[in-house]
Amino acid sequence: MNEGKTILIIDDELQIRRLLEITLSSNGFKVIHAATGKDGLIEAATQHPALVVLDLSLPDIDGQQILKKLREWFFKPVIILSVRNSEEDIIAALDNGANDYLTKPFRSGELLARIRAAIRSMENKEDVPVLEFGALSIDLVNHVARKDKEILKLTSTEFSLLSLLAKNPGRVLTHQYILKEIWGYGYIEQTQYLRVFVAQLRKKIEENPSKPTLLITESGIGYRFSE
Question: Which CATH number fits the domain 130-225, given the four candidates 1.10.287.470, 3.40.1790.10, 2.40.440.10, 1.10.10.10?
Answer without folding.
Answer: 1.10.10.10
